[in-house]
């Protein structure tokens, strides 16, 4: 993928009510500037909805429709079809939702839109929990992470939404991080140029929900990428995998140490999580056609 340097065109306004140091507001700024003015937004109830607010107090320069938690992808599909009926085929419909509205409550609508290959760009801000309502676990919450509803650590693994979406054979799926802003902008620009359903999942370390310092969200996101806990990748047509960052350069310990939600872990727990990350990384390299012995 050709990397382009991020440019700010003033599509995201200051004065929003995100937490100080929030990586979601930073990511939203990049996404809105990359997608451009000829865009209509659809937002599910989430931190995103709070940041963007209602007209005329939204922090986005584009028009934004606020919908229900379970129907974001369906609403975006309807908006796109209405625009097509007006002859505005090239107007981008940008759907913004959290992991609760994507992995869980909104999965049926997203799956249906993907099955129909609706021409929408769906962005999930994945903070790995219901952080806007008290920090409860979602199916995106990782194994052993402490949340408001899993005080001793989540007993199950994070849902592999990437593989679920790939099974739909949609044109484009990608992961992105606020630690790699030019990569995020390039993936948004690429997705915008593709017809059909495009999904980008952006890792968002939640300051209060993860127990991360106010100035450490981007650092924590970078550690997730470097440890292979959140690989940066692209999948085209459900079968062609490629890695934006092709090497895992550090163990998971530094990433875990940044977060209070993992402070209960024993040495055995950390070793188990490292093994899980290593296994997942090996499978991903195999899918991307990499030589595991290189």
UniProtKB/TrEMBL annotation:
Keyword flag Oxidoreductase: yes
Gene Ontology annotations of biological process type: small molecule metabolic process
Domain Thiamine pyrophosphate enzyme TPP-binding: 64-202
Taxonomy of the source species: Bacteria, Pseudomonadati, Pseudomonadota, Alphaproteobacteria, Rhodobacterales
PANTHER family named among the record's database cross-references: 2-OXOACID OXIDOREDUCTASE (FERREDOXIN), PYRUVATE SYNTHASE SUBUNIT PORB
MF annotations from Gene Ontology: oxidoreductase activity; thiamine pyrophosphate binding
The species this protein was found in: Ruegeria marisrubri
SUPFAM superfamilies the UniProt entry points to: Thiamin diphosphate-binding fold (THDP-binding)
Gene3D superfamilies: 3.40.50.970
InterPro entries given in the database record: PorB-like (IPR051479), THDP-binding (IPR029061), TPP_enzyme_TPP-bd (IPR011766)
Protein name per UniProt: Thiamine pyrophosphate enzyme TPP-binding domain-containing protein
Keywords, sorted A to Z: Oxidoreductase
């Amino acid at each position: 993928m050709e990397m382009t340097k991020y440019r700010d065109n003033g599509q995201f306004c200051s004065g929003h009510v995100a937490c100080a140091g929030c990586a979601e507001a930073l990511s939203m700024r990049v996404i809105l500037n990359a997608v451009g003015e000829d865009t209509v937004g659809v937002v599910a109830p989430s931190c995103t909805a709070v940041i963007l607010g209602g007209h005329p107090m939204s922090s986005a320069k584009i028009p934004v429709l606020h919908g229900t938690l379970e129907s974001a992808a369906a609403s975006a599909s309807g908006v796109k079809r209405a625009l097509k009926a007006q002859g505005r085929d090239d107007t981008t419909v940008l759907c913004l939702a959290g992991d609760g509205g994507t992995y869980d409550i909104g999965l049926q609508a997203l799956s249906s839109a993907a099955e129909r290959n609706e021409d929408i760009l769906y962005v999930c801000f994945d903070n790995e929990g219901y952080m806007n309502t008290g920090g409860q676990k979602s199916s995106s919450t990782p194994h052993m992470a402490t949340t408001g509803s899993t005080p001793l650590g989540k007993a199950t693994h994070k849902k592999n939404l990437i593989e679920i979406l790939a099974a739909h054979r949609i044109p484009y799926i990608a992961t992105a991080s606020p630690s790699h802003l030019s990569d995020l902008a390039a993936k948004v620009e690429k997705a915008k140029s593709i017809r059909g359903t495009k999904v980008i999942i952006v890792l968002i370390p939640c300051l209060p929900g993860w127990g991360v310092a106010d100035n450490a969200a981007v650092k924590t996101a970078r550690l997730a990428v470097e440890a292979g806990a959140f690989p940066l990748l692209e999948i085209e047509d459900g079968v062609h995998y490629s890695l934006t960052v092709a090497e895992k350069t550090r163990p998971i310990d530094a990433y875990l140490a940044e977060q209070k939600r993992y402070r209960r872990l024993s040495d055995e727990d950390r070793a188990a999580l490292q093994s899980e990350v290593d296994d997942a990384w090996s499978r991903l390299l195999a899918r991307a056609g990499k030589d595991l012995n290189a």
